[in-house]
Design goal:
The chain is mainly alpha-helical. It has a single domain, classed as Homeodomain-like (Arc Repressor Mutant, subunit A), CATH 1.10.10.60. 76% of the residues lie in helices and 0% in strands. Keywords: DNA-binding, Transcription, Transcription regulation.
Length: 62
């Protein structure tokens, strides 16, 4: 695994935790995880997990 891939994986894992446990917006989570923008977070999150962040959150916080 390349260093960049590892870093992106860690950022998505942190985003997962924040989506599960907080009411932060996707934009705020993108900023806190170092993804920069919500668009970037959505792209990497969907690529790694197969669902967008909003759908993932609804699984834990209906």
């Amino acid at each position: 695994m390349s260093p960049l891939r590892w870093l992106l994986t860690q950022r998505v894992r942190l985003a997962q935790e924040l989506l599960e446990t907080s009411d932060l917006s996707v934009e705020q989570i993108a900023s806190r995880t170092g993804m920069g923008t919500a668009t970037t977070l959505r792209r990497h999150f969907h690529h790694q997990l197969g669902v967008p962040p909003e759908t993932y959150r609804r699984t834990f916080r209906p």
